[in-house]
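Our consortium's second objective concerns turning raw sequence data into structural hypotheses that experimental partners can test. To show how far this objective has progressed, the report includes one record in full. It was chosen at random from the queue rather than selected for favorable results. The single chain below, 156 residues long, was entered without modification.
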Amino acid sequence: NYCRKGVLQSPRHISKKDIRAADYLRGDKGGIPAMNYIIDFVIGLATGVLSGFGIGGGSLLILYLTIFAGTPQFAAAGINLMYFLFCAPSALISHCKNKMIERKTALICICAGIPSSIAASLLAAYIDVNLLRRIFGVFLLCIGIKELFVKKDGKA
């Protein structure tokens, strides 16, 4: 169970009540059932495949961890970052091989992404977990609405 192991989580955001709630959601009545590991493995496998296709498996992983596994938002974000370190290189190699990366655009995104991700991670440590969860939910909702209603320009 992620809550008991203390994986990448800030102790000030975790209470005993959160741990008990996560245990209840996962069906943990004192021990760690093998079924939890199997479910976690299958979800990790599925989101890894989706990440390879560029669908956004990391977002789905965060949803699974927070809603079904009972992992606190702050810990789920940290787990997702570790997960991304292992999924991203294979996707990057594939995209480079297929010449699907515009180097100029990638350089601009890298230069903007590094300082903004550092700033956002520092800010996230001070934001209430419930507010962070709501912000993330609105972000996913906006992306979903955009994908449903914005016409594609025909490029793959």
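The partners drew two points from this record. The chain has seven helices and no strands. The chain has a mean pLDDT of 77. Both points have been shared with the crystallography group to help prioritize constructs.
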